[in-house]
Design goal:
Helix content is 10%, strand content 52%. It is mainly beta and 316 residues long. The chain has one domain: monomeric porin ompg (Porin), CATH 2.40.160.40. A 14-stranded antiparallel barrel has the order 1-2-3-4-5-6-7-8-10-11-12-13-14-15. A hairpin with a 4-residue loop joins strand 9 and strand 10.
Amino acid sequence: MNKYRVILILFLLFLKLFKVQGQQELSFNHYMFNSQLFNPAFVGLEDNLTISSINNLQWIGFDGNPTTNSILLDGNLKNNLGIGMQLLSDKIGPLNSNFIAIDAAYHLELNNSKKLSLGLKLSGNDHNISLSSLEFDNLSDPNAGSKDSYFVTNIGFGLYYYSEKFYLGFSIPYFFEPSIINKKRHFYFSGGFKKGISEKLTINPNFLIKKVSNAPSSLDFSTMLFYEDSFWFGINYGSTNKSFTSPSKNGGNLSFITGFKLLPSLMLGYSFTSQLGSWNASANSKSHEIFIKFRTSKALKKSNDESSSEEDDKDN
């Protein structure tokens, strides 16, 4: 059994025996494109039904490296209502979690073209720990066949204040703290703005802050440059509040993000992440992420023109 498996097993046993107060939520570089992952208030922003996916492969070259795959549905209903669904699989070593969530949001019209969205998330998490998937030198070890499985439900909510150029969001995607999987409540604060710098170029800075009790805050800051909304590229810097100004010593990550519209209804994105800090010098710590978003030609709600046409047909 190599040294990475030994470290991983010790870490997992520590998680199992003690109540760890650490950050447990998922991280994506494309959070600005799929904020529905952590804030249900984002569903229903587009008229047409959208289907999107983010696939994340972290720490290439490390045994049991984290892999995350997600599929999201997002649609707009009548009366300023939005609805969505998430299917997500997350795996690291012998830990495997499968999530399903239903998101709903109500978009309230404010003055001066500003809106406030209120979101609700209902979720279920199938959480599995299987040490039997690891290779043990001594099969008589009582931990060699250890396997636990739990299914927990949760509820979350979110707020999203936005206009055409500016937006802010706050959410708690999982409000309850099930002790059986030592899950802690996380607080998300996100925002950004868009500013045209020429006829064809738009700059879009974003930020995402995650906070959990008894752990440093996680900070992500990105800047994206869009060309006619058909091609974009940018960078994202992630760290904690304690190592934000000294990532080379305490750790952090730097990501390059790019993407384009293959078709008017199809977006493709890719990001490459390199870890910062001397702690990972002994391992290949590169990560890759692929983002796909498809906008269907159908809307869940009927437009005013379609409704008027149907009414006219009935009258005739």
